[in-house]
Specification:
HIT family, subunit A, 2 helices
């Protein structure tokens, strides 16, 4: 699986305005936001689709 932009942000290879982070998820301001305050939330484990998330990971996002 190729590194995603999210993985590169997690490793701090790409700058981002991080607003929340813990051991499972990261949340940061969308660099191309259309509406002010648009935040992206992603798991730290890279998956191809949301269906690959463990139940605990998906629950942690919400």
């Amino acid at each position: 699986m190729t590194d995603s932009v999210f993985s590169r942000i997690i490793r701090r290879e790409i700058p981002a305005a991080i607003v929340f982070e813990d051991d499972q998820v990261i949340a940061f301001m969308d660099a191309g936001q259309v509406n002010p305050g648009h935040v992206l939330v992603a798991t730290k484990r890279q998956v191809e689709t949301v269906m690959e998330l463990e139940e605990t990971e998906a629950a942690h996002l919400f």
